[in-house]
Amino acid sequence: MRLLNTSSLEFKEFYENAIPKYAILSHRWESDEVSYKDYRSALRSHRNGENGTPGMEKIVQFCKLAARDEFTWAWIDTCCIDKRSSAELSEAINSMFQWYSNADLCYAYLSDVRSPNSCDWDAEELPPEVEEDLEKSAWFKRGWTLQELLAPCDVEFVSKDWEHIGWKGAAPVVTLHVYGRSRWTRRYDNRSVRNLSGILQDITGISASVLRDPSKINDFCVAEKMWWAGARETSRSEDLAYALLGIFNVNLPLLYGEGGERAFVRLQLEITRKSTDQSIYAWPSIYPVTPSDYDKYRAERDDRETQWMGLLARTPRQFLRNETISYGPDSCSCEQGDSMITRDSEADALDYTFSMTARGMQVECHAYALSEAFFPGSWVIPLSCHTRNGRCIIFLQETGNGMAVKGDGDYPYMVRVLSEVDPGTIDNAKVRVMKFCVRQTGFNDPDIHTDKRLEDIKVGNLSGSERAIPLRPA
């Protein structure tokens, strides 16, 4: 890890077991950022008293702030990574979440938020104008800053003038031992104890519980974490997937140029290899259809087939599409509406197998057969996650060459919960053990509607076993 000395502004390399205490900066990249390649020249200009670029001024002010808080070492992503080396860049991005997590303190620099008056520091509430700036800050819309918000235990938000705004959670404290007794004391006495977790929850939709305690990230299901990232953006499309590696505790090789959709599918595949959390498939339909539109929709079905999707979403934004479903943690302690999604316990989880092959996603699962009057070759798969209204489901539709694709919008109503399905459309309301091969759009080539080589993939019954899964929540 390459760190900056906060006094000399010189670099020093540290290996894993010898990394000292350090401060870290979270910020939004803007114009004239100083790269590792340009840092030496920018540092010489700074030492000669020349006016530096905004990027160099940011580095200097960050180091001053860290030095004031008695940090000898600091890290910032603009100049501490040599992006000319693909190996170093890959290591940095795959390690980024851990680096922010291990930092003793993270400063979140908000270049578009004004400073509170110092006399307001002890007030529990922010001044209205500062809170308004905070809510509109572009920092909360960037993909990389999500992990920078979640990973560190202690985050201090600072304004465009590098003045204190507040803390992500409670103000950091340390234990002092005085005459054999332990005493808690505020670590940074020159700042407020203002806890911003409530405001941050309102801005980001992320539960204050995980903002206060990063160790609770794993209590939340995959769908919830994707929802956190759904409205965020990155300059390079692939980075929207790469910025989520640490949040899901996975590693990927970086393939810039592959495109954001393909990178996001690779991320999800890696998640499925390490997790049995089926909420990763519980993203809403993008084709809401009402009963009154049924006849018109059926006539347009052939055209819509070309827009059918695979089991994996193409972007985190697809987890935002259905406003009737909100996602919540795997815990009853956080209330986020009547439709939160939670994972089933391991004992209640359905034993499914999902694996990606060259021909598509191979799925062995329990499935309801929809009645022939509804759509021939249509299936409903219940997932091991649920809202308060019932179990989450996905639809599959058999195509002419035997492939099945996710097609929620192929039905005359918007449905994501099993209890909302008309029992009359399901044969016997029992499930069969089935095997499907589902093409992942944008990942498996060529297109399923023209590739005759895929005709040997059939939708078949693996066994005659049946299992009752209730349509209504208990």
From TrEMBL:
Alphabetical list of Pfam families matching this protein: DUF8212 (PF26640), HET (PF06985)
Domain of life: Eukaryota
Domain DUF8212: 262-374
Domain Heterokaryon incompatibility: 22-115
Family annotation (PANTHER family): HET DOMAIN-CONTAINING PROTEIN
Protein name, UniProt field: Heterokaryon incompatibility domain-containing protein
